[in-house]
Design goal:
about 350 residues, alpha+beta, Elongation Factor Tu (Ef-tu), domain 3, six-stranded antiparallel barrel, four-stranded antiparallel sheet, 6 helices, about 25% strand, rod-shaped
Length: about 350
């Protein structure tokens, strides 16, 4: 090898000192990169954890993965603003009835809705209540025109007085005939006829008395009274309107009722229960009733009626739940949610 080749090879050779300095630099770079990665993880991880946490009440914090156990222990779970929307599933489950086995909706109804109808066709003379008025048992609410029956009563009283005079005359005639028969002036036949005349007069008085009682009954029926203590649910007629106890058909016939009444302290929830849920319901079962208008209020209830026949078209069976101690917040015909409770 000549001197030129050796010189070129010497130029390409790496100095051991330079090699050591280059390796140290690489190690330093790797260490810096590793420290930066660890720092990034430490900075990022707490934010992730905070995003997955929410308050469990009483100063406790529950991580999303621990939510189920916190809910099962009875802790009230609430989510702060901005928390993942999937977490509230456990919170809503814990807010319901603890031993509810079925929740359905129905309608609040009066246990008894009474429609007062006249006993005969007549004209409303006076109506003294309006929709929503409170009434008491026996209170006069409607008066029907009784002019015709008052006139018939006067006529019957005159005929009755005349019949009573006939009875008095027959009694006098019988007494006179008895005296004549005793003195052998009249025969026994005259005595028998006088007794029959008296009996006929008495029968006439009795028949007229019966007619008079009928007229008095009709006059009493002209006065319509409330049969219960409750509230007027609907006013169906006005003064001077014709009413009848039965419908003649069609929409333009006379009204068949004057008012409808209900007891606001005797309410039920009527439910059309799906046949798939019937196995979870039984008579005397305890329930919790919550009106949809006031979801924060709840009332105790009991299953009091299960219909003996289902609806084939709907595939449902009617259930009625009696509400205990209803108040002004429960309005008939509004909807309510019913939780059927287990043992």
């Amino acid at each position: 090898m000549n001197d030129d080749q050796k010189s070129k090879i010497a130029q390409l050779r790496i100095d051991p000192g330079d090699k050591q300095r280059s390796g140290g630099t690489m190690k330093l770079i790797f260490v810096v990169v590793a420290l930066a990665a660890v720092g990034a993880v430490l900075i990022w991880r707490p934010w992730v954890t905070e995003g997955e946490r929410f308050s469990a009440g009483k100063g406790k914090t529950v991580v999303a993965g621990e939510t189920k156990s916190a809910s099962a222990s009875g802790a009230k779970v609430t989510l702060p603003a901005g928390t993942n929307a999937t977490a509230p599933a456990f919170a809503s489950a814990s807010s319901g009835a603890s031993n509810s086995i079925l929740t359905v909706s129905g309608y609040i109804i009066n246990r008894e809705r009474i429609e007062l109808s006249p006993r005969f066709m007549g004209v409303v003379k006076w109506i003294g209540v309006r929709k929503g008025d409170a009434v008491t048992n026996g209170q006069v609410v409607v008066l029907l025109d009784d002019a015709e029956y008052q006139a018939r009563k006067s006529e019957l009283e005159g005929r009755l007085a005349q019949a009573q005079v006939g009875v008095r005359r027959a009694e006098i005639e019988l007494k006179r005939t008895a005296s004549l028969v005793e003195n052998h002036i009249e025969t026994q036949r005259a005595m028998d006829l006088a007794q029959l005349d008296l009996q006929a007069a008495q029968a006439q008085v009795q028949a007229l008395e019966g007619e008079r009682q009928t007229i008095l009954t009709y006059l009493d029926w002209c006065i319509i009274r409330a049969p219960i203590t409750g509230v007027v649910l609907e006013k169906l007629v006005d003064a001077n309107e014709l009413v009848t106890p039965q419908s003649f058909g069609g929409a333009r016939g006379p009204s068949t009722a004057v008012i409808s009444l209900g007891d606001p302290k005797d309410l039920q929830v009527e439910i059309d229960m799906n046949e798939a849920d019937l196995a979870k319901v039984h008579l005397d079962q305890h329930c919790k009733v919550s009106p949809e208008a006031y979801p924060d209020r709840s009332y105790e209830g009991t299953v009091v009626e299960i219909a003996p026949e289902a609806s084939r078209q709907k595939g449902t069976l009617q259930i009625k739940v009696q509400i205990k101690n209803p108040d002004k917040y429960l309005t008939p015909e509004l909807s309510a949610k019913v939780d059927f409770l287990g043992q």
